[in-house]
Amino acid sequence: MNNLNTNKIPIHDLMKKIKQYQKDYQNMKFYHHIKTLKNPMKIRFLRRNIAKLKTEYNKINQ
Prior knowledge:
Helix content is about 75%, strand content about 0%. The protein is mainly alpha-helical.
């Protein structure tokens, strides 16, 4: 989950990944509220990966 190579991803795939990660993030947060996850650090890694992808997206769009 930490290895995120965003250098050569086309913008369309980048948007798909962002949406998929955001959906996974919301689901993970929901399940964490119901029942504590075994590894809650996954939530943090997922949130950071979303931020990295959004940064790459903004670099491409400028």
